[in-house]
Design brief:
This protein is of the alpha/beta class. It has ten helices and eight strands. It is globular, with a radius of gyration of 18 Å.
Length: about 280
């Protein structure tokens, strides 16, 4: 089963389920605008322990309806049961959803029950066992390595297990060092991993927020970028301008050197992504 066009770069955009009616209205407008770029798919995140399950489902349905673009719900397994995941899969199949982003996910704060799944490869294996090839499955990978992995080799083996379990494609955690991605790709090739691996792209729009996210997920902000952003303090315009320069250059280098496409973490905003898109001349 294939959902990747090999002759041209593929682009996709990630959203999170809005918490308010105002947020939902804003996201509809964001999706309508980004749909004009003809992405391969949109994706919608799934909260820790399935905490946004209903909102994820509602968001997927609404975005699909207004945009006409394939929408892939994230599905996190940690803290879940097989029966619960089976119910979700059946619901998606009945609704015509055929594209998933399968993740381990995080436990809700204060909870220690890992449920019946501990790792994403177990989720991928379960999806294939239950549904065969009815879903196109994306998984996550980490060019700078998962913060909980004891070493790089172990993290690569964990990624390979997801591929061997039946993953069709992968999306990386965001990064700002192009060499990290291509070094990771070389490592994957040596291990016989040959699925498409799309670089995850995070626009730089708010340094405080970016630093918090990066510390939590293990994405490195190179020292020279961090120091420049710190130096701008509360000068939002300068942060955005510098961030645009950095991320546009990163995207350009990735595409020129053969990356199969780009997956943008939009944070439910249009302007940062559109500015990068236009700077790359992708119209």
């Amino acid at each position: 089963m294939s959902d990747i066009e090999s002759d041209s770069p593929n682009f996709s955009f990630e959203f999170f389920p809005p918490k308010t009616r105002e947020g939902a209205i804003k996201l509809e407008k964001v999706a309508e605008t980004l749909a004009e770029l003809d992405p391969r798919f949109f994706s919608v995140t799934f909260g820790a322990g399935g905490s946004t399950r209903d909102n994820t489902r509602e968001t997927v349905d609404r975005i699909s309806e207004i945009s006409g673009i394939c929408v892939a719900p994230h599905l996190s397994c940690i803290g879940s049961t097989q029966e619960g995941i089976r119910e979700i899969l059946n619901d998606y199949l009945e609704s015509g959803i055929r594209h998933l982003v399968a993740l381990r996910g995080d436990l809700p704060s204060g909870t220690r029950d890992f449920g019946e799944f501990r790792y994403a490869n177990e989720l991928v294996e379960f999806i294939r066992k239950e549904t065969g090839d009815k879903f196109f499955i994306e998984v996550a990978c980490y060019p700078e390595f998962h913060p909980q992995a004891p070493d790089a080799g172990t993290d690569l083996q964990n990624f390979k297990r997801k591929v061997e379990a039946g993953a069709d494609s992968a999306i990386t955690q965001y990064f700002f060092n192009v060499d990290a991605y291509f070094s990771f790709m070389d490592d994957c090739e040596q291990m016989g991993i040959d699925i498409p691996i799309l670089p995850g792209i995070m626009p730089i729009n708010n340094y405080t927020q970016l630093a918090r996210f990066s510390d939590a997920c293990g994405a490195e902000i190179p020292r020279w970028i961090r120091r420049r952003l710190e130096g701008y303090r509360d000068d939002i315009a300068s942060i955005k301008a510098f961030g645009l320069e950095v991320v546009t250059s990163l995207c350009s280098d990735l595409l020129e050197q053969g990356a199969p496409g780009l997956h943008f973490y939009t944070m439910n905003q249009t302007e940062p992504v559109m500015t990068i898109w236009n700077s790359l001349g992708l119209d």
